[in-house]
Amino acid sequence: MNDWIDLRPDPAHVAREREKARQLRQTEWWRQQLRNGVCHYCGRKVGEANLTMDHVIPVARGGRSVRSNVVPACDACNKKKRFYTPAELILAELEKEQEQQAGQPGDPPCGD
Ligand SMILES: [Zn+2]
Questions:
Q1: Domains in the chain, number
Q2: Is 83 helix (H, G, I), strand (E, B) or coil?
Q3: Cα of 34 to ligand 1 centre, how many Å?
Q4: When comparing pLDDT for 97 and 106, which is higher?
Q5: Phi, psi at 105, each rounded to 5°
Q6: Where in the sequence is the domain holding 30, given as residue range(s)?
Q7: Residue 85 φ/ψ, nearest 5 degrees
Q8: Each residue of 53-72: pLDDT tens digit?
Q9: Ligand 1: distance of its center to the CA of 52 in Å?
Q10: In a domain, 82, yes or no
C-alpha cells in the first residue's frame, strides 16, 4: 500500500534521536507529563506507571526527540500506532474499511 512513501530510516538519525529521547525522559518537563497520567491519544487517565514516551512522528520516519514531537501514550495506543504517522493511520483505517466492504459483500453492516 505505501509505495508513495520512500523514507528509509537513517541509522545515524535514529541513534541520535533515541539518545535525545533518553535525555528528554530525565527532564522535569517530561516527569510532569507523566505525573498528569493522561494518554495523549485516548485521553484516559491511566496513571504514571502505564505511560510511555511516544514520538508523534516516529524516529524511524524522520521524527525528532523534541517536546513538540513526544507525547505520553498508554500501552494500548502505543501498540496500535506503532510505526505509522497520524496521516497514515487515517489512511490505514480507510483501507481497512474498504477491504471489509469489498471482502464481505454479503455481511450485514453492523456485525459487532
Ligand atoms: Zn491511550
A1: 1
A2: coil
A3: 13
A4: 97
A5: -65, -30
A6: 11-103
A7: -85, 160
A8: 999 988 988 899 999 999 99
A9: 10
A10: yes
User: Rounded to whole angstroms, how far apart are CA atoms 77 and 54?
Assistant: 9
Distance (Å, rounded) from C-alpha 97 to C-alpha 108?
14
In this structure, what C-alpha cell is assigned to residue 14?
535514529
> Which residues have a beta carbon within 5 Å of ligand 1, which is an ion?
39, 41-42, 74, 77
Q: Which amino acid is at 48?
A: E
Residue 37 is assigned to a structural domain of this protein: yes
**Which helix (DSSP H) or strand (DSSP E) does residue 58 occupy?**
none
- Which residues, in sequence order, are bridge partners of residue 53? 72
Q: Which three cell numbers stand for residue 9?
A: 530510516
Task: Give the CATH number, domain containing residue 20.
Answer: 1.10.30.50
**Residue 61 lies inside a defined structural domain of this protein:** yes
82 C-alpha to center of ligand 1: Å? Answer: 13
